[in-house]
Amino acid sequence: MLDNAKALRSNQTEAEQRLWYHLRAHRFMGLKFKRQKPLGRYIVDFVCMEQRLIIELDGGQHAGQVAYDQQRDAWLHSQGYTVLRFWNNDVMQQLEGVLEQIRLALSPGPSLASGRGE
Question: Whole-prediction pTM value?
Answer without folding.
Answer: 0.83
